Amino acid sequence: MYDIKALYEAGSVEEAVSLLVEHPEAQIIAGGSDVLVQIREGRRAGVELVSIYGIDALRGICYDEEEAIRIGSLTSFSHIAADPIIQEKFPVLGEAVSLVGGPQIRNIGTIGGNTCNGVTSADSASTLFAWDAVIELTGPDGIRRLPIQEFYIKAGKVDLRPGELQTAILIPKKAYEGYTGRYIKYAMREAMDIANLGCSVNAKLSQDKKTIEDVRIAYGVAGPIPLRAVTAEAAVKGCRTDQKTIDAFGEAVLSDIHPRDSWRASKAFREHIAKVLASRALKESVLRGGGEICE
Q1: SS3 of 6, please?
Q2: Residue of 138, 136, 112 lying closest to 124 (CA atoms)
Q3: Cys-Cys with 270: which of 3, 66, 169, 259 at CB 3.0–4.6 Å?
């Protein structure tokens, strides 16, 4: 049984905001793949819920007026993976969300729910960090946008103000144009498992494909929230696409990550995996961008 005090269904963003203002203790529910489990476990017993699942305006992927990729927060993982815009411009996100749970979870789970949970292990989060995603929030004071790095505050907490809901995730044109990337999830099982570590890398190559003009890398489960390894990024910008650069990139990530010991994996093991995944993801990003790894 689910111990729910009340359920309010919003038919529009405006109605959702109004309900959240009227019921300040209420919890937003979208697909419910996380919230319902928490209620059943007793962690949210007696909760009030505001369902936004019926707001179709929050579904779908398109370009906005500045050619940013706009992903509605209610877009399911399955739809993201199959979307033609994602497949053409941002395929690494489709690959990342295809690793979430099983088919049933991917059909009902939403990108907004995955990010608003604020957990470091979310498969979409590290990729969105690595691609400089912008979070759009709508509340009683209107719309505000902030970089995803500012949206995550601490483990399990994001910058959602009273009465607000996340309405979209934006990938700016300058963040995806000319970049190719790779997300690698390390887990005990390939499916239905939480990542022991997630690593997302993207790179932009020079015109002759022999130099790394820019690179971004982000991790999940390498700290209390997803994080960028900025030292590693700076270490290889402007470097040739050779094995020495690939190896240096992997070593440099240790300056930025903060993994911990847990029953899933030790800190030392996560640090080792972080180096391996960084090197592998950068190499594959270069190859996907038409480059070669020179000796």
Answers
A1: strand
A2: 112
A3: 259
The set of residues, in sequence order, having a beta carbon less than 8 Å from that of 190 and lying 6+ positions away, is: 99
What dotted CATH number matches 178-288?
3.30.390.50
Model pTM? Answer: 0.94
Ramachandran angles phi, psi of 261, nearest 5°: -75, 140
Q: What is the mean pLDDT of residues 88-116?
A: 91
> Is 52:30 a contact under the CB 8 Å cutoff?
yes
What CATH code is assigned to 58-174?
A: 3.30.465.10
Query: Does pLDDT of 188 surpass 70?
Result: yes
- Which position has the token pair 């594959």? 284
pLDDT at position 104, please? Answer: 86
Residue 294 burial (10 A CB sphere; 0-12, 13-18, 19+):
exposed
* Cα-trace Rg, the chain: 19
**For 228-245, what is each residue's pLDDT tens digit?**
999 999 999 999 999 999
The CATH classification number of 4-51 equals: 3.30.43.10
As a whole number of angstroms, the distance between CA 24 and CA 7 comes to: 13
Residue 119 has pLDDT above 80, yes or no: yes
For residue 111, which of 143, 73, 162 has the smallest C-alpha distance?
73
